[in-house]
Description:
Layout: H1 8-17, E1 21-25, H2 38-49, E2 53-57, H3 59-67, E3 74-77, H4 93-102, E4 106-110, H5 125-132, E5 137-141, H6 145-153, E6 158-160, H7 178-188, E7 193-197, H8 203-211, E8 216-219, H9 221-224, H10 226-237, H11 244-249
Parallel strand pairs: 1-2, 1-8, 2-3, 3-4, 4-5, 5-6, 6-7, 7-8
Amino acid sequence: MKMKTNDPKKLAxxxxxxxxxxxxxxxxxxxxxxxxxxxxxxxxxxxxxxxxGLRLNSPEQIRKVKExxxxxxxxxxxxxxxxxxxxxxxxxxxxxxxxxAAGADIIAIDCTAQKTHEGTIAWDLLPQVRKKxxxxxxxxxxxxxxxxxHASANGAEIVAPTLYGYTQExxxxxxxDFRMVAEMCRELQEEACVMMExxxxxxxxAMKCIxxxxxxxxxxxxxxxxxxxxxxxxxxxxxxxxxxxxAERAKHSNELK
Length: 257
């Protein structure tokens, strides 16, 4: 594996994820499936099914899964929504510190060119995280190739088009852009691992991602969020009168219903 890092621990962790499925186990407090132990059950199911890693949101849920001793590496993030910005994935160092303290093995942050609630540019956080946590892998959530290149150049070992469809420029998209991801893989092949995340709804599409060069694949809603799966079917059966992805993009409340 050709990578910018020579850290044997980082390389071993990346190698353990190669070619595999990472399951995003997340539930928000305002969702119908939320219970205090739901994220642990999701993670247990992911391990049972053969997942090589987990992607978890919030210190609380990271800590719960860590305590379950499942033995799978954790990509940690912390979603915080504000009305004046579309930046919501681990937007400041405060959230980074909290997920690291909770036990995240890999730090996921927004590395787009969007303006944050604090008035900064999201990707400006990356060099700060790289400096403070040199022993952690950084997972850069981006929306296009330019942001992926910028993230790699500034220290991210992993990049993923997680936010393709969640920025103003890409809000119109309906599915994965495999051609863009393939180009991302070619551009960064000796600099960073490209992991596919976002809009993958079948094993066949996941396999396509590996074929075009992705290091591994992250799948969330299609596996762990039955209310979104149901809404997607209903949207299709209803002749696309209501776009189910509006619900998927919705901002959430951190409070219990």
